Amino acid sequence: MTYQEAEAYIAQINADNFGDYNDWRLPTVEELLSLLEQKQETTVRFILSERDFERLKEGEHPMPDDVIAELKSLQDRQFSAETDFISAVQQQIGAEDAARYQERLVEQAKTEYALYINPMFDSAQTWVWSSDIYQIKGKRSTEAAWDVYFGFGFVDAVSFNFRHYVRVVRS
Predict the structure, then answer these.
(1) Any domain includes 170
(2) Which ranges carry the Lcl C-terminal domain (predicted)?
(3) What is the full per-residue pLDDT of the chain (171 aa) written as tens digits?
(4) For an engineered disulfide with 132, which of 136, 142, 146, 165 has Cβ 3.0 to 4.6 Å away?
(5) Which pTM value belongs to this model?
(6) In a domain, 124, yes or no
(7) Gap between the Cα atoms of 105 and 136, Å rounded
(8) How many domains does one find in the chain?
């Protein structure tokens, strides 16, 4: 469902007093990520899109502060080394071969560094809306919200018009 449909759905289950409660809401990105589990050989919490990573490096990334702090630590340990390495590879083997090589690295990262949802939480629901609204330079956006991909722990901001799953929570 779209983000607006998700909001209407939550309003309806609250009006219906679902489960004898009327304080259901969309979860935050942090709450959604708490459902994911790491593989034993990794310490990386999630993978960020290249576009969002660039925004993070420039200090413009609108993610919550606690997520940014963790990602900055990740940036220092993981991505800066990979970026330097890929630049060197591009100079040695050419841009086209380097692009194919980078695609293989991304696929490997999905396997080695990704998070996975426990099947008891219904792993068929892949993209899930969060309550976190995408912000551009501190201003509230009226066009996008953060979502989490349960396939491998990807976090991204997308248009309210995208169709995603909804998981409701209460505090």
Answers:
(1) no
(2) 1-170
(3) 999 999 999 999 999 999 999 999 999 988 888 887 765 333 344 455 555 556 555 555 455 555 555 555 544 544 444 454 545 545 555 566 666 666 665 565 555 555 666 666 665 678 899 999 887 666 665 678 888 887 767 788 888 989 999 999 998
(4) 146
(5) 0.55
(6) yes
(7) 30
(8) 1
